[in-house]
Structures are given as C-alpha cells and as structure tokens.
Amino acid sequence: MKYQNKIYRIISLLLLLITLGWSSCTVDPIADPNNPSTSSISQNASLGELQNLVTGIEGGMRNNLNNYYDAISVIGREYYRFSTSDPRLTSDLLGKANATLDNNTFYTTNPFNARYRVVKNANILITALQNTRATITEDQRRAAIAYAKTVMAHELLMVFNQQYENGIRVDVADPDRLGPFLSKDESLNAIQALLNEASADLKGNTADLPFTTTLYNKKASEFAKFNRALAARVAVYRRDWNLANIALTESFFDLNGSLTDGAYYVFSTAGGDLLNPVFFPQNSPPAEARVVQPTFITNAEAGDTRLSKAPKRTSTASQDGLTSDYDFFVYPTNVTRMPIIRNEELILLYAEVQAQLNNSSNAVSAINRIRNAASLGNYTGATDVNSLITEILKQRRYSLFGEGHRWVDMRRYNRLNELPIDRPGDDVWVQFPRPATES
Amino acid sequence: MQNLKRLLFLLCLLAPAWAFTQVSVSGTVVDLENNPIQGASVRLKNANLGTTTDADGKFSMTLAGKGGTLEVSFIGFKSQTITASSDMANLVIKMQEDVGHLEEVVITGLASSIKRGNLAHAVGVVSAKQLAGTTSQPTVDAALYGKFTGANIISNSGAPGGGISIKLRGITSLVGNSQPLFIVDGVYYDNSSIQGGLNFVSKAAGQGSTNFQDNPSNRVADLDPEDIERIEILKGASTAAIYGARAAAGVVIITTKKGKTGKPKIELGQWVGWQMQLNKLGQRTWDTAKVRAAYGASGITVYNANGGQIYDYEDELYGNKGFLSNTRVSVSGGNENTSYYAGMSYRDDEGIVKNTGYRKTSFRLNLDQKITKFLDLSLNSNYVESSADRGFFNNDNTSTTLGVSFVSTPSWVNLYPDANGNYPNNPLAPSNFIQTRDLITNNEQVNRILLGGRATLKLVNTNIHDLRLVALGGLDNYTLNTNAIFPAILQFQKDGNGTNGALIYGTTVARNSNISALVVYDFKPADNISFTTQAGINTFKVDINTAVNTATQLIGTQTNIDQAGALQAEQTKNISRDKGFFVQEEFNFQDKLIATLGLRGDKSSRNGDADKLYYYPKASLAINILPFTSLKTFSQLKLRGAYGESGNFAPFGAIYTSLVPLNFGGTTGSIVDLTRGAENLEPEQQKELELGFDAGILNERVGLAFTWYKKDVEDLILKVITSGSSGFSNAWRNVAEIQNKGVEIALTAVPVANKDWRWNMQANWWKNKAKVTRLDVPAFNVGAFGATLGTYRIELGKSPTQLVGIGDSAIDKVDPVSKLAVFGNAEPDFNLSFYNNVTWRNFELSVLMHWKKGGDNINLTTLLSDIFATSYDYDDKSLDPKGEMTNGEYRLSILGATARPWIQDASYFRVREIGLNYTLPGAWFRDVARVKIGFSGRNLINVFDYPSYDPEVSNFGIDAISSNVEVTPFPSAKSFYFNLSVTF
C-alpha cells in the first residue's frame, strides 16, 4: 500500500509538471512573413510605409482602366472595341439583339472591384495616418487625410458613373459591416460631401503632404485645386451650379491657361509597371483593336484639329456587323498619360455653369476658347441655355473624346436617345447592373 | 558515508543468499523446422531481466529467487511462456509462426503500442519485405501503392526523382494540404513539393489555370526505402487523432531499421537494371495529302525539302534505355546494452529521356544504448544528398516544354543538329525539342540531415506498475536547390523569342523540429488486466524559406545569375509554431475487451487565433468475441470500432490580410491584396467513424479484415468571391463539407506451407465514395482548364471529384441550369491488389498485381496532339458515330461543343512489382555468407485502354483537387533489375 502511495505521488508530481509545462505553452501569433499586413501598418506606420500606401493608391487607380473606358466609351458610341477573344465587347455593351449587360462579368465587376480596392487602400491610409507616430505635423496629418478622401471621392465617382440609378456604397471602411447602397442622389451628395470635408483641411494649409504624389501637387493648398476641380465636376453632375461656380474658381481652372494642365494617370515601361491600357498601335489588326464610331468623323465640323485623335486606317476594320475606317488614337504612345481631370474639361464645365446661370457671354467666350484651340471659328449659334448646352456637349464630345465623358454627359441631359445606333436592335444602356457579388 | 558503507556491507552479506536461491536456464530457440532463431528475446515476465539468442539460437540466463515465467518472443512468431522454477539446461523452444501477424506490435499512441490482434482499427502496415523486398524502389511513396487498403496513390509523372500524390480515404481538403503527415522515428518529416519556377518559361499558370505546373518532386523521396523496417498508415481521424491538428489527411509512421543483439551482420547489395518507356504510342503516318490538310502549303514545303523523310521522334525523345544501379551496404549488430544499424546506399538512375536522371546517396546511423538500468537512449541520424534532372514537361502556354513541343511537331520535320552541332529552328513550332532536351538543365538538388532522439527513463518497474518518462525529438533540415538553365541559344530564347536565355535559381532552406515529452504508466492490477495511461506535450516548429532568382538577358553561355541583364527575385516563407498536449488511456481486459480513450489539444500559429486550443478526441473499442464462443475453426474473431477527430490548416497565409507590392513608375507601393485573409478562419475538422471485424480461421492460415468507415470533413476552406465594395475580390471562408464513405477488405492466406513450399498471399479490395454535403457558395468549377476541356465541379450533393464539361445536348446529358454535363469521376470505382509470395526451397517469387477499376482523367495530351494533327490514332476511324471522320477530325470537330473526348477512363491493371530470387546453397560459401541473386521488375505488365502514356498521371502534382489531369507529362517507365546480395 505504501508502495502504491509512492507511485501515486510520482504520478501526481509528473502530472503537475506537465500541467505546469503546458500552462506556459502559449503560442504567439506570427506576423505574415511574406507581406506587410494591413493591421500592422494601421497601427504605427513609418513615413516610408505611408509613402508605400500612397504609391499603392496611385498605382492601383490605374488597374482595370481599360475595362472602364472601353465599357463606357463603347456604350457612349465613341469607339468600338473589337476583340475576337471576347465578343461581348461588341454584343453585350452595344445591346446587340437580345444581349444584355451581365451582372457577373468583367466589364461590370472588374472596374467596380478595382475602384473599391483603391478606396480600401485609402481607408487604410486614413487609419494609418490617424495612428502613426512618425514625425508629421498636425497640418500634414490633416492634409494627408484630405488627400485620401479626395482620391476616395474620385474612385467612388467612377463607380457611380457605371452604377448611376443603382447607387453605390460609400461607407465601406469595415468589410464586415458595409454601409448601405445609397440612392443615386444620395451617392452624389456623399461624394460631394467627402470632397468638401477634404477641401476644408486642404485650403489655406501651407504644409506639404507627408509623401510624394503624382496627383497634381504635393503642397496641400495646391492639392486643394485638384480637389476643387473634382468638386466642380460633381457639382455639375448634381446641377448645383453655384457650388460648381465657386469650386471652379478655387480649382486650377484657367480660361486662358494650357488645356492639358491637370492631374493624370501616368505609365511607364519600368519593370512591373503598367502601360497605357487603351493604347493600340495604329492599324492594329481588327482581331484586337479600338476603332472610332464613324459618326465621330461625320458629325465633326470641317477643320477640327481634334480629329487627329481618330486617324484613318490603312484598311477598314470590321467585326460583328460593325465597321470603321478610323483608329481610336487619343494616346500616341503606350506610355502616354491619361487625364483624371484637366483644364479643358474645367473650361467646358465653366461654360456649362455660366450657361446654366444665364451668363451666356461668359459661356460663349469659354466655348470659343475651346473652339479656337481646335482651329474652329467662334460660336455663332443661339445663346439660349438649350442651344448652348447642345454646343457645349458637342465640344465636350470632341475635346474629351474617349476620356469617359460622352455617355455620362448625354445621360445627365437625358439625351441618350440621340446616340447613334449601329445595328437594328442595338440598345443604349443607361447604367450597368449592380454586381452579382453585392447582393 | 556511514550509511553507504553499511549498505554495502549488508549487500555483501546477502550475496550468498542470492547465490543459493537462483535458477539457471539455458537452451535453444528454433522454428518448426528446427532452424535456430537468432535474436529472439527471452525475458523474465514482469521484470526487467532478459537476453537474446545468439546466431545458433542459444541463450542462457540466471534468475534470482525461485525463478519465474520466461517469455520467449521473436518477430513473426507467436510468443511462448515457460515456467522456470528449477535449473533447466538444453531446453529446446520451438516457436510457432505467427501467420496472421496477430502478435505483431502496432503503434497506437505516441509512446505505446499494442498487439495487432488487439487493435481496434484496420491496420495499414507495410513491412520492409513488402516495401522493398520484391524489387528496387527509387522512392518510398512510389513503393506503397497496392500494399494496403484505402489509398489512392498517383505517380504524377515518370520524371526521375519522384513526385507522388497520396490520398488516404478520399478527398480530405479542397485547397488545403491533402497529403498525409510523415513521421520517421518520431521526427516530423517534411514532404513539401516546391515549385522550381519553370513557370517563368512555360507560362503554364495564367491562361485557364492559375496553378503552377512545374512538376516538382516531393521531399519524402529523400528517404531510402531500404532503411525502412516498417510503415504504418493511419488512414483517417479515427486512428490519427492523436496527431491532432495536422493529421486530417492521415499519418504515415515510418520506423527505420535497428541493430539486433548478436555478431555484426553485414549486408551488401547491388542492383543493376534498365528502364524504358512504359507505353509507346507510336506516331501518325503521313502522306502529302495529310500534310497539306494539316499544315497547308508551308507544311508541304517543309515536307518536300526534307524528301518526305520520317523521324521516329517518340523513340528519340522517350526511347533512352535508362541504366539503373543501386549499391547498398549495411552493418548492424549489438550487445545487451548497445545496438547499431548503419546503412549506406548509392543510387544512380538514368531516365528514359536523355539528360534526365536521379542520383541519391544516403547514410544512416541508428544507435540504441542502455545507459543504466533505468535509462535508454536511442539516436537516429540520416544524411541524404540527391540530385534529380527532371527534364521539362507538362503544360505550358509557350510551346516550349519537351512534351508540348513533341506533340506539336509532325514527324517529318528535321530537328537534328547539323555537322557543326547547330540545331535548326523548328519551322512549325516555337521550339526544337531535341535542342531543348540537349541544352537545358532542370535540376533539383537536396542535402538533408535528419536527427531523431529518444530517451526513456524508467521510474518505476514492478510487476504491477511500470512508469516511464519519454522524451523524444527531432530535427529535419534540408537545403533544396532548384536550378533551371535555358541558354540563350535555344529557339525560344533567341532572336526576340523569349528573354535571351533564362536562369532560374531557387534555394529552399527548411528547418523543422519537434519535441515531445510524455509519461507512460502501465498498471496491471491483476493478471490480464491492464491500464496504460499516457500524457504528454508536444511542440512543432516549421521554418521553410524559399528564394527564387530569375535571371534573363544572359551574357554568353554564363550560368551565374549575376551574368545577366535582368534579375527578378521572389521569396516566400512558411513559418509556424504548434504546441499541443495529449492524454490517452488504454484498457485491456484479458485480451477480450480493449478500449482506448484519448484527447489531443493543439494550438498553432497557423490558426487565426494562435493561442486557441482545438481539441481532437478519439475513442475505440475492440472485442475479441472468440473466447465467448465455442467456435473451433476460428482462431480470431474480433469486432472493432473507432471514432476520432483531426484537423487541417488553411493554406499558408490565409489568415493574413496582406498588402502586396505594386510597381509604379519605378518605385514600389503597397496595395491591399485581392484576397481578404480571415483571422477567424477555423481549421478544417475531420470526424471519422470506423467499424469492422477481423476473423481468422485454421490457426490464422486465412484471415479476413473488413472495415467500413464514414469520414466527414467539416468547415472545409475555400477562397470565395466576396462583395467587391469591401475592397477585396475574394475571401477565405469555411464553407463546405465533404463526406467520404468506404469499404476496405483485406484477405490474407497461407494456402501452402510445408517443408519445401510456402505461399503467402494478400488480397486487398477498397473503394471510397465522396459527396459534398454542405456548400455555402454556389456550385463552381475548379481545377484543370475550364469547362470546355473538362473540369472538376464542386456541387452540393455531388462527388467532389466529378468531372464535368460543356456538352452537346443532343448526345450528352446537359444540365439545363449549369449547361454542363458530367463526363466522369476521378475517383476509382474500386481498387484491387493482390500480393503473392511463393518460396520453394531456395527460390522466392513475389508478385504484386494491382487493378484500378474506373476513375477518369482529363487527357489534354490527346487534345494537343489533335490540334497539331500528330495523334497516333488521328487517322483511325473508331469514334465518329457516323463513321465518316477520322478520330482526330472527329475530336476536333466537337471541340468547343463538348468536353467528352478529353475525359477518358483511366482504369488499369498492372503487375506493379515482380521479383524472383534464389539463395545460393550455403555450403558453397562454407555457411559464412548468404548469397542471393535475383531478377525483378516494376510495371512490367500493363493493361489499359487509356490512350496515352500512363493512366497514372497528374499535371498539377499534389493539389488536393485537380489531380488526374494529363498534359504532355514525362512518360512513365517500366524497369528491370538484376540483383545480388551477400549477407555475412
């Protein structure tokens, strides 16, 4: 019996040892050994990491632009996108016969996801800026958060352009609790509000952003001008002419300045970088090509130098019952920058705002600024609002060709029915369906 | 000091008393034919006293007191007990063979084992003899198929150096690890399959499938099969639960050889052989009309320029008679306190494609040392160096792999170099496969060190109590160098095709280790009643770091990565820490009722919550009902049931929401990954119930084991499409559940056993059926290359291995909603294997036959051959129901309308192994040496309708889903060996 007791004592001792040993057995989480994690960067980002997020944002803004511009330019009857590997670019987008837009395919979901991915990065940047212990001033922090909001507003506006009446989600900071889809008007209002919030922190702020940016300017008070340019565009979309008017004056709008002044997507041939996504060499085989919708040529006024954006092909390109002799050639090289917003648009926005505010002479002088730049004579038509708007939409068509405006412009003036129909039974879509993955 | 002296004095006084009351026993242990048995153990029951027999089977020992019960045992024989109460000399102990292996010891806990006859689960055991006794085996995993029930093993290709996918009892994961855990002498043995980066040239991942298809080997190939004593396979959670969080795909426990007491035993072995292509397909015959039809005017020009000459390229590329050799030396022996085993082998296998081959050198030293009466140590060490030249095969999107290039080149194109050694460009395809074969390098080189140790401290050892403390651990370190060289002179690298040469230099450094400490307590309160309790803790550390450098724009013929114009680097680390505990209680009541209860708890940094404990319980019960009956014919009748749970982690990195690098204008930024990590991801959980019975008749001359199992894999992890407005396109989730049900029957028999003849046979039959029982996302296609060519489809209520594709609704049963038709299933209907071992005097014949019935492949070698009009059966007319088109034309005519032609039955029957050995009469060598000569072969007989090199193939390697896809693989080989072995 004694012996047994000894055994029990040894066993209890061993069990105790094992229990003790076990209780000290905690397993510490291991941080992702292959990539920086979103959580660590949100907690205490270094200046370098902030810069990485910004570079990620500006690089990411360019993802999937080809699908975005192709989708809305094709529906806006600016050009055809021929592709033997994907016939949907000429069937679904143009509403051929019974074809409709699909809610679960690349032209709907890819641009949508790519824009929200940048929004996500901007949200991470905001959190990182709020928590960082890096040496930045309070003014810099405010300016940098305003930068993130400005970018976010731009990306959301692009989503909105495709979704329109479906509305968009604006509150997407928490992926587990995504905000509701707002109505069309609420969506635009929310984008405007986001820009205005940012503007308050940028205007008069003499600090530099705590990172470099390829978007307009690094100085907060200058970056504000980019913000206001976007605000003017959104205000015009909202038909808030007074706000648009003020925003234009605070932006980099310059009636007599360079038409190309503005903010751009940039591309390069550096390793891993992106090339201009809508560039094809001239006379590309019709198997893969962007060719101009013929009315762009036929509706043009004689001598319009902007037709240089649509040079004649050496051979006609045809596919799926569509034919064109002109290449879409807005960007002459595969690294030509693409505008996000530029002075030529601002001048036309100014013309539109002045027309709507019944300052027709201001509107006409802005129209003439554009016409003269394209080697056309002054505007001689009527100066009632409706006539001016018709002229402004036409100038926008040629000045901003292929830059993602035509469809949006015709839609906001309820003129989609004026867009040309190429084949009997084709449709002009008002908007894209909400992606299947959002339901 | 005083006390000690007194004690010594007391001992001296008592010594004569010992001398007076002692019993001396001596004798010989022999088998039924009176051959002496060397190394048999003779032990005093319930005491720590014992000896082993010498070369003549003799032993002698002295027992203190009034003697006791001696237990005589030897592997393969039934143990015997002898009561020794007075002096006994010249005892002759005749051992009876343990025909049904009922006394064989099987590992059931981390430090306990149980007699096979008492097991509560179906056992998968492969002995050294079965593993490598019939013929020479290049790798361990390749040597397993057909040798136990419940496995589906696929040799991914015929490339030298291995590459095997093992699935135990069906599909256990969709995206996670699907390969069993390997444990060698207590050391977690890494079985990674590391891609060498050939994708840079092949671009195989990208169009159609994003998975890499580099055809890597897997690292269990580094073990030398000849060093292995036995392998136990735990096929599911009901047995593997004690290995917890990493055991869902099963556990393969490998025990290596140990030295036995006695004089040194030296074994020398030499194998030489040849291997050749397993199944030659032949080539299409050509004439001008066919050339014109297939290749138009440009083809005719090439055809005529060459005078219509036809080259036998199948023979050129796959016709190499690969010379095989394997040299082995092992020395083992020991005394009562020390035993050792040292094994050395050198293998040099040449592939059936020139410039391919496999060389492996392995050294092993196993040492066992009794330090004191109460402390045992054992140490296992293994060093392996291997080098595999694997050629360049499988799918690509650049027409550069040897396989794709071969099928895209008709036999009338001359690819041979001219007198100056300059290779012509292939006028019809982007690469010249003869040039590629001769000039590229694709090498995997491994240096691996494995160290394992075990210390057993016996704290208490009496008749009733036996308490031991066991500490064991191991290190598994290796460096894998992958080196692919594509010289700039290759057709697809020069003149603006490709990157003017490419060097892909990868290094993987793996450092894994595990340590366990446990207490084992045997308590025998009465005769034939025992409790075994064990409890312990365990840690496991993984640290695998892979860096791949890809250099392009090479300078001349330089092969250093700095001799290049551009360099790209990529690094992936796989780091994890596991900690766990386990407790297990086994209860044995008179060998009639054997019950086990166990629990394992595991934490791992691979889980979202690293410190959360996941529990894996198990319970089993075996009832030997024979003693309760009066059945005379039976020698065993046992009912058994086992239940257990085990886990599987998400793919590495799934718990992290990462920022990925993005290049922008020459600088680098960070952007959120497309896939959202899931910090709250639960590991996959498997619950398995196994029921069965074992029966034996005629003194175990015939044995039958029947097993039924049901295995539910819950919380299966998938990358699912998510709301894009979250910023992510995909997210990891636990969304699915799969149920596997199966039956396994193993029949063993010894139909003949007499003085001259002996015939052992074993027949295994098994089948598994799987079904998706939960799916929280819509049904989706996965694996292979999309629905046009056939793909897997995960669909609620269907088998996860179903093969579907687009269908022609006139002929195929097309689902109106999904627009897809089911054309097959990768899972076999059943497997039947049949192992025979016949000895007649000094001759021994072993044959392993294997029939896999059913199971389909997606064969895209046929598709590619058709597209390039090179299929060997292109001109046959056996497929078109109208009898108009040739096979090639017919298949191509329905490409895009139905995936039917590419999904093909991959049934086969093959004689996997056959070996005939003759032991030369001992007298010739004065009984000093035992000399054996033999002839053997692998895959010598193959019967299948499958229209390609081998139905056993996997383009995607060990992927959980999407094996059974063929795209121009390295063809399989059959091999012959002659062997000579000498044992001193």
Strand content of chain B: over 45%
Question: What is the CATH class name of the largest domain in chain B?
Answer: Mainly Beta
Termini gap of chain B: 52 Å
User: Mind summarizing the main beta sheet of chain A?
Assistant: 2 strands, antiparallel
Major sheet strand order of chain A: 1-3
Structural class of chain B: mainly beta
Query: Which structural class should the secondary elements of chain A be placed in?
Result: mainly alpha
CATH class identity of chain A: Mainly Alpha
Give me the strand/helix succession of chain A. HHHHEHHHHHEEHEEEHHHH
The CATH architecture of chain A would be Alpha Horseshoe
CATH topology descriptor of the largest domain in chain B: Maltoporin, Chain A
CATH fold label of chain A: Serine Threonine Protein Phosphatase 5, Tetratricopeptide repeat
Helix content of chain B: under 10%
Count of DSSP helices of chain A?
14
Q: Looking at the structure, what is the overall shape of chain A?
A: globular
Give the secondary structure arrangement, pairings included:
The complex is a heterodimer of chains A (439) and B (984).
Chain A: H1 2-23, H2 38-43, H3 47-60, H4 65-75, E1 79-83, H5 106-131, H6 138-163, H7 184-202, H8 220-237, H9 241-250, E2 262-265, E3 288-292, H10 295-298, E4 312-319, E5 322-326, E6 338-342, H11 343-356, H12 360-373, H13 385-399, H14 406-412
Antiparallel strand pairs in A: 1-3, 2-6, 4-5
Chain B: H1 2-20, E1 22-30, E2 41-44, E3 50-52, E4 58-64, E5 68-73, E6 80-84, E7 88-94, E8 105-107, E9 113-115, E10 124-127, H2 128-132, E11 151-155, E12 164-168, E13 181-184, E14 187-189, H3 199-202, E15 228-234, H4 237-240, E16 251-256, E17 262-277, H5 288-305, H6 313-318, E18 322-334, E19 338-350, E20 357-372, E21 375-389, H7 402-407, H8 433-439, E22 441-461, E23 465-486, E24 502-526, E25 529-554, E26 564-589, E27 593-604, E28 614-624, E29 634-648, E30 659-664, E31 667-672, E32 675-676, E33 684-697, E34 702-721, E35 730-753, E36 757-775, E37 780-782, E38 791-794, E39 802-806, E40 820-825, E41 830-840, E42 843-853, E43 856-859, H9 860-867, H10 887-893, E44 903-905, E45 908-919, E46 930-943, E47 965-966, E48 973-983
Parallel strand pairs in B: 1-7, 13-16, 32-35, 43-47
Antiparallel strand pairs in B: 1-4, 2-3, 2-5, 5-6, 8-9, 10-15, 11-12, 13-14, 15-16, 17-18, 17-48, 18-19, 19-20, 20-21, 21-22, 22-23, 23-24, 24-25, 25-26, 26-27, 27-28, 28-29, 29-33, 30-31, 33-34, 34-35, 35-36, 36-41, 37-38, 38-39, 39-40, 41-42, 42-45, 43-44, 45-46, 46-48
